[in-house]
């Protein structure tokens, strides 16, 4: 129930933050991992570092929002694994502005990477996920999907859309044996939030809203992703696990 040995796992955005923590945790649990990101040197460096530790791991340079790159990912999996057990749609970005200040290009980029790309990749990999006896998709959403947390509207829209994508695909693909779930982190220490969390006043206000009195570590989000990939969660689909240190239930 609690194992992932020999499972074939794809993590998008795997070179930093939550994605990197997922790559490391899946490898520690005995899975084979393919990870992607857009920065060639970071992909190569992480692949080398993890291979030196004896892990079965491969990195590919791929922009999740480019169809041709996602087709290359599909090609690599078809040629090397022939099926896929776990897809973690983790790659995400944010551009923080007031709604009226975004250019059309900026807000469409946020929606493309955070919302459209997971749909494209899940659809592309559907035939390979169907071939696995027990396959799962885990989408990394956000607290911003559920309430306004000052991230900017396009990011919040993208993550709220991702939650409904999770529920709709979970129903549509249940009969194919594919579970689809989401994890919604609140503030987590990663390069994405580094600048924001360095602002003492912002950090103070985040912590004062969070009953556990701190922000999350990336590995605390990765462990939920891993749980949702295991047979231990085999009756769970279409759900969103909120990892927010109690923030959303803290009324006063
Ligand atoms: N950190 C938080 O507080 C927090 C809270 C809620 C939700 N989240 C969500 O958690 C996920 C991971 O966030 P994070 O904080 O770990 O971010 P991060 O530290 O910025 O890392 C993002 C990773 O994704 C890659 N990436 C970005 N755009 C990509 C694209 N188009 N195609 C492929 N890879 C791409 C980045 O590498 P390259 O830039 O080199 O491509 C990097 O490896 C995101 O979906 C984010 O929205 C984070």
Largest sheet, spatial ordering of strands: 3-2-1-4-5-6-9
**Large-scale geometry:** globular
Q: β content, as a range?
A: 15-25%
H and E string: EHEHEHEHEHEEHHEHE
CATH architecture title: 3-Layer(aba) Sandwich
Class by SSE composition? alpha/beta
The H-level CATH homologous superfamily, spelled out, is NAD(P)-binding Rossmann-like Domain
CATH C-level category: Alpha Beta
Q: List the domain count as a whole number.
A: 1
Cα(first) to Cα(last) distance is 39 Å
Listed once per kind, the bound small molecules are: NADP nicotinamide-adenine-dinucleotide phosphate
- The unreliable regions are none
- Percent of residues in helices: 40-55%
Question: What is the CATH topology?
Answer: Rossmann fold
Q: What is the subunit arrangement here? A: single chain
- Using only CA atoms, what is the Rg? 17 Å
For the residues shown, what is the average pLDDT? 97
Q: What is the number of E strands?
A: 9
Largest sheet: 7 strands, parallel
């Amino acid at each position: 129930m609690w194992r992932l040995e020999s499972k074939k796992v794809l993590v998008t955005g795997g070179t930093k933050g939550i994605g990197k923590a997922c790559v490391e945790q899946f490898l520690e649990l005995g899975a084979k991992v393919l990870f992607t990101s857009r920065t060639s040197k970071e992909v190569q460096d992480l692949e080398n570092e993890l291979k030196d530790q004896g892990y079965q791991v491969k990195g590919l340079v791929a922009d999740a929002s480019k169809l041709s790159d996602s087709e290359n990912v599909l090609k690599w999996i078809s040629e090397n694994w022939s099926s896929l057990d776990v897809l973690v749609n983790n790659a995400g970005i944010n551009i923080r502005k007031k709604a009226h200040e975004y250019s059309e290009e900026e807000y469409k980029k946020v929606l493309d990477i955070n919302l459209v790309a997971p749909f494209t990749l899940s659809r592309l990999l559907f035939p390979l996920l169907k071939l696995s006896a027990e396959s799962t998709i885990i989408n990394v959403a956000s607290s911003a999907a559920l309430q306004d947390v000052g991230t900017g509207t396009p990011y919040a829209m993208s993550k709220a859309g991702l939650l409904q994508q999770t529920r709709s695909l979970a129903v549509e693909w249940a009969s194919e044996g594919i579970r689809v779930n989401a994890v919604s982190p609140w503030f987590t220490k990663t390069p994405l939030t580094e600048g924001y969390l360095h602002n003492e006043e912002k950090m103070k206000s985040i912590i004062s809203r969070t009953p556990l009195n701190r922000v999350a570590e990336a590995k605390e989000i990765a462990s939920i992703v891993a749980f949702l990939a295991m047979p231990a969660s085999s009756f769970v689909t279409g759900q969103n696990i909120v990892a927010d240190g109690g923030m959303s239930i803290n009324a006063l």
